[in-house]
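Consider the tokenized backbone below.
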């Protein structure tokens, strides 16, 4: 069993090799907007999981996740060959690509925070215009000699 530090170093190296190969060596147009965000390697160094995200062609266009996944599936053999040549390990790990859900979760959290801020603003506006239901100070009573209890 390999140590986890070696697995982390190998994961970082694999991530770098795959990202470079996608950017420069593989000419598949489906992979033009794919970014490798993270990589994990098992402690026995036999399996590597690469997390990716896909950007749209423009800010307004949605990303095409299905095409990117198909492009990565087709390029897996070539990418594994490049990883084997670039790492020099005895057994080249199998590559598995998983879509990274962190950007979607971050976007969802930002929407929730914006909604909470809007609700807080509405409550603050209502509180600023609110009047007490009864007396202004229902528990304060002045004694006959002018002291408050």
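A designed sequence for it:
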């Amino acid at each position: 069993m390999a140590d986890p530090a070696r697995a982390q170093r190998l994961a970082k190296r694999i991530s770098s090799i795959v990202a470079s190969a996608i950017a420069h060596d593989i000419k598949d147009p489906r992979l033009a907007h794919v970014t490798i965000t993270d990589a994990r390697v098992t402690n026995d160094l036999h399996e590597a999981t690469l997390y990716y995200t896909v950007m749209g062609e423009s800010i307004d266009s949605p990303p095409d996740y299905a095409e990117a996944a198909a492009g990565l599936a087709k390029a897996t053999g070539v990418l594994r060959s490049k990883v084997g040549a670039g790492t020099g390990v005895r057994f080249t790990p199998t590559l598995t690509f998983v879509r990274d859900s962190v950007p979607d979760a971050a976007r969802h959290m930002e929407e929730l925070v914006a909604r909470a801020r809007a609700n807080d603003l509405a409550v603050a506006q209502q509180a600023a215009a609110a009047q007490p239901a009864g007396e202004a100070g229902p528990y304060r009573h002045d004694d006959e000699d002018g002291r408050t209890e």
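The first helix runs from residue 4 to 25.
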